[in-house]
Each structure stands twice: as structure tokens, then as C-alpha cells.
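Input.
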Amino acid sequence: MNIIETAIADLKIIEPNVFGDARGFFYESFNERTFADAVGAKPTFVQDNHSRSVRGVLRGLHYQIASAQGKLVRAVVGEIFDVAVDIRKSSPTFGQHVEVRLSAENKRMLWVPVGFAHGFLTVSDFAEVLYKTTDYYAPAHERSLLWNDPALGIDWPLAQSGAPQLKAADMNGKTLAEADLFA
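Output.
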């Protein structure tokens, strides 16, 4: 497994070792020991989620203020533009973000620890995304950071799809200045 450091030390891009031949391919998408060595922690995953989205769907930027979730995210069909924003007020990288393209082709994964808002834009005709979480979904604690808050400076690749398709909660997300944040 290849671990790619990002501009924010706690966010890691993970590239698995892929073994392929004329029959197809095999790779280990998760190994607790290898993962713990790579990220310096041994999280317990309690839930697996699977979403399917068409081109131009933007999901996020989501987080749970209580029952906070770490996420291990990957695209198994298509391609997404994935973003994680540091919303830990005490962090030296508070308000900064990391962008990465995750796809079925590159098989990359992004580790998003607790304290980050997370979202993605589908940039292929459709995409299926799998993500493991370290806590259960808690709708009462779910929050949405405004995806296009100028303070975040995220350059979403919207040229092909135009305006993103959003659910109401994401259209009405809070700016970084207004949002409930982590200490």
C-alpha cells in the first residue's frame, strides 16, 4: 500500500497494491494493521455506506458535530472530485482543504478523520462511492458546510455539468463563519 501525504497531515491518500492480469485484478481494500500503521491510529469501523450519483451531483460538505465520523472513502464505479475541509478550530490547518480525484480506475482512497467536513462531486456519467465510518449515522447531529463558501476557496470542476445538483440541506449549508465546529 502506498500512502500519499497531503497538505493537511491527518488526511491521507491511500493507493492499494493492485495485482492484475488477463483475468482481471485483485487488491486488498482494507487491512486493519496496514491502515493503522499508515494513519497512526486504529479506528474501529462500524458502518459501510454505498451511494450512487449521476454527473453533477454534489454531496456535502457533511459532518456530524456529535457522534463524529472518520471516513475511508473510495469510488468503485466512475470518478469523483473528493474534498475534505479541516473544521477543527484549534488546528493549524483550520479552514483549509484537500482535493483528490477518486475513481474506479485509480483505486485511490481518502482517509478523512474526525474533525473534517467531507463532500464530493460526481465528474463521470455516474459514480458509486463506498465509505466506511467510525460512528453510526446520527441525523440529529448532521451538519452541512456550504459547498461554495468563498472562505473555503474550493475550485469545484463544474464546467461539464454546470450548476451542481444538491439536496436542500446542502443548498442551505452554513458558511465556515456560521457553522458548528470542532474545538
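The longest helix spans residues 32-39.
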